[in-house]
Amino acid sequence: MTKEEILQIFADTAYVRTGGSEEEERCANYLVEKCAGMGLAAAIETFPVETATVRRERLTVDGREVTGKGYLCSGSGTVDAPLVYLPNTDPCSRQDCKGKIVLIDGHIGYWQYHELLDSGMVGFITYDGDTHYADRDIDRRELRSYVSKGRKVPGMNINAKDAVELVRAGAGHARIELEQDETETLSRNVVLDLPGRREEYILFTAHYDSTSLSQGAYDNMTGSVGLLAMAEHFARAPHDYGMRFVWCGSEERGLLGSKAYAAAHEEELKKCALNINLDMIGSIMGKFIACVTGEEKLVHYIEYMAAELGWGIEARQGVYSSDSTPLADKGVPAVSFARLAPHNTATIHNRYDTADLLLAERMEADIGFIQTFAGRMANAALCPVGREMPENMKEKLDYYLLRKREKK
Ligand SMILES: [Zn+2]
Fold it and tell me: From ligand 1's centre to the CA of 279, what distance in Å?
């Protein structure tokens, strides 16, 4: 794939494509066409996802309207209650939230959400954006079903500048009015097979969806382009192991595409020797990393290979917040590759995630390294990566997938 072709794909996909939206479907079709252009037949696999249409959303604080967006799937209704800002949500702080609407920093996590509900929270407000940015953007967030587990109170998301003003003013009383229709729609995975000489195969993944305000160029059209480039390469290069490429939908909504894929293909995953996941590569700035959810030997192999090739890398064992995780949870050893830019040179999940963060030469180089690694695994006399998931990784998977709570 040439630099011009890479840049053209970013130009063609410079639009928001949230999981389950028409734009996500448009991008899935685009990826199928791109494969067809290389003489390869990719297929779309649909899976159901929750969705909601907001009919009415309004946040009033001390009689003044504050611009906000209601949390999708957080239920409908009106709550009128004292407002409290809880920078900490430890047991002592939580004593203060009974019968109140709670303003918290960052995202609302599973354990925190249920603790706040148990302590009597009746509604919640989060904020995003950045007080230093010129925009007043507000992301459309959702209360994920695996977070709410059916316990819903209305939530609003506001801009960071307004959150600061509310706290500065000592805001005392809030009213959330939220009406929404919660339904189901379809999201899509795009699947391409390149059969090898043996039955076992390597599974490549990268998500192509974005969050609500983002073109998702860096996160993660870069990884999607990486998969296209490798599919083009390996369609013409010999490989003993088969290869399957999956462009995942709805990753930004909680890895829904890879979870759906793992559930639908559980039996076939027993023949999967390795998952290679790409999530954010090719940025102008930033370090290259490998995160291995599998045996530690693979970390060392990648480090040795990188040194041999003169490639800078930081490799470690861990659970990556990306599509590799549901596959690793099915026992597939996984490695996620990424180039992580410092936050003051590239931010994601907002309007600033555009192709301006990227360099075609860096894309080519990052893809080149990953392709070399993939080629070695695919042409190994026996792919040496152990299928046994180490205990420390199983434990981390339990934490990430909310089966167990990590003691901080
Ligand atoms: Zn991503």
Answer: 5
What are the structural domain ranges in the chain? 3-48+186-400, 57-183
pTM here is 0.97
Tens-place pLDDT, residues 173-207: 999 999 999 999 999 999 999 999 999 999 999 99
* pLDDT tens-digit readout, 38-93: 999 999 999 999 999 999 999 999 999 999 999 999 999 999 999 999 999 999 99
Q: Report the largest interatomic distance among the alpha carbons of the chain, rounded to a whole angstrom.
A: 71
**Span from the CA of 163 to the centroid of ligand 1 (angstroms):** 26
Out of 3.40.50.720, 3.20.20.70, 3.50.30.30, 3.40.50.20, which CATH number does the structure's domain 57-183 have? 3.50.30.30
| 142: β partners | 72
Which homologous superfamily is 3-48+186-400 in? Answer: Zn peptidases (3.40.630.10)
CA of 280 to the centre of ligand 1 (A): 6
DSSP state of 108: P
Which amino acid, one-letter code, is at 35?
C
Give the distance (Å) from ligand 1 centre to CA of residue 175: 34
Nearby residues for ligand 1 (ion, Cβ within 5 Å): 219-220, 279
List, for residues 85-136, the tens digit of each pLDDT value. 999 999 999 999 999 999 999 999 999 999 999 999 999 999 999 999 999 9
Helices vs strands, H then E, count in the chain: 12, 14
Instruction: Count CA within 13 A, CB hemisphere, residue 384.
Output: 10
Q: State in Å: Cα 278 to ligand 1 middle.
A: 9
Give which of 373, 361, 283, 279 is closest to 6, Cα–Cα.
361
Q: How far is the CA of 251 from the centre of ligand 1 (A)?
A: 7
CA of 218 to the centre of ligand 1 (A): 8
Residue 368 alpha carbon to ligand 1 centre in Å: 20
